Amino acid sequence: MAKAKDDDEFTEFVASRAGWLRGTAYLLCGDWHRADDLVQESITKLYTHWGRASGADNRDGYARKVLLNTFLAEQRSGWGRLVARRAAAPQDEAVGPVADLETGLDLRRALAALPARQRATVVLRYYCDLSIDQTAEALACSPGNVKSQASRGLSTLRTLLGTGSAGTTRRTT
């Protein structure tokens, strides 16, 4: 009886968070197909550890951490390098409604050009809206490392997008 309850709880959690996980995975890897693979692998890992995850204070944070670890582990493997090359090929997939399509495409290309740790830091800080401490916890590194990775990532994005430093906002939380 308890197993059925856990399965129902897991199914409900995944159904309500699948879109969010997929969007986050896409920002990490830059390829919808690869994002689907990352989410599927993360959901499988989450299921095998659902007893621990269901008892976590922040299930979304736990799921995000599993997704992030899955992405970073793939980046370190030979398979990750092969998949990254495939993802670098031009994509013609629709992203969804974007106010300025050209800017959206430029941002996707620039984000894909960042090293994996910088990309993960930028996505967690500015897309997932995590604080420096929360990002540091998710990446298992120091807050200073998060600050430097975010700074380098934003600097690279500014350079690639040709925006310089004018008109940028600074987050301190």
From TrEMBL:
Keyword Transcription on entry: yes
Origin: domain of life: Bacteria
Keyword entries, A-Z: DNA-binding, Sigma factor, Transcription, Transcription regulation
Keyword Transcription regulation among record annotations: yes
A Pfam family that the UniProt record links to this protein: Sigma70_r4_2
Matching CDD domains: Sigma70_r4 (cd06171)
Domain RNA polymerase sigma-70 region: 15-77
NCBIfam families named in the record: SigE-fam_strep, sigma70-ECF
Similarity comment: Belongs to the sigma-70 factor family. ECF subfamily.
Name under which the protein is recorded: SigE family RNA polymerase sigma factor
Organism whose genome encodes this protein: Kitasatospora nipponensis
